[in-house]
């Protein structure tokens, strides 16, 4: 039996029924998509009744009702597809996405994708707020959810994309270092940590993932440049900066300290910021042992102590990025060059760090006072 295809409502075309083995199937076209769906019926009359009911469901509920698996695809499948996509394309770092997925997993575990809508994203945001999460954090998690849903839509596993509303985020943190405050903190740091902070203060580089990861192959003291390899930064771009005279001198002093350590250990130390104290080798069965000559991964405790001693507790090392951006702006460096130095991917992100300080406003008032005084003198 073959029924002629006829146009229905809402881009729906009911196709003919045909037998596959002992079961009748229906071929249906919805908005240009041709689908073959088993009626699950062995009798022709029962199959016709099923097809007629299916047509009514599609007209009332839309394309989702026509997709064979749309009502069965669950969040776990979309999550797996998302991670596979990120690994294959390299669009995002999986280690960065995984913590955000953990919170989304806890809420949407076992949920059908077709049933996730705006109300669910709002309820998720409310629960995360009650748990103490900031709106910016929740927005990043909702972005991961939205990307998974969009990918499912692209793969034909979701008929319609829900609208996920983002939350209003708090204004960006305005903390940064004035020169005298930074000098006060720096005095309470050892030479290694002070140099690492100098790099972050000058160029706005991220402390743990960019500064403390430096090796001597990234430093050229003859030319006076510092570089980061392609793929080693958050935005995957490489970076090259020229050292200021003060930094060049500080790196030369650091090189001598590392050479002294190499002579002590009898081997090459490739790291710019190694441990100068600690055990000579990793002890079996012990974790987080400071090993002499291995890379220094952080100095958060020393940083907090230095900030308290300098009378400015609570300052963050990430404030160096804002400080570097402000200093570049004050120095008249063009934004196209400044973003290459700091590693901001777009100017929009760079502008979030270009914060105006109270001191900037005071200096503007002084400049305006001078202009107004000149205008008054000219009028006399």
Descriptive keywords:
OB fold (Dihydrolipoamide Acetyltransferase, E2P), 14 helices, alpha+beta, 380 residues, hpI Integrase, Chain A, 4-stranded antiparallel beta sheet, 10% strand, 49% helix, disordered N terminus
Explain what you see:
This protein has 380 residues and is α+β, with helices and mostly antiparallel strands. It folds into three domains: 6-65, OB fold (Dihydrolipoamide Acetyltransferase, E2P), CATH 2.40.50; 75-154; 179-359, hpI Integrase, Chain A. Helices cover 49% and strands 10% of the residues. The protein has helices at residues 44-61, 75-89, 94-108, 118-130, 135-154, 179-186, 191-203, 207-211, 245-265, 300-309, 319-330, 335-342, 347-353, 358-379, and strands spanning 6-7, 12-20, 23-30, 33-41, 219-220, 225-228, 239-242. The strands form two sheets. Strands 1-2-3-4 form a four-stranded antiparallel beta sheet, with helices on one face. The chain has a three-stranded antiparallel beta sheet with strand order 5-6-7, with no helix packed on it.
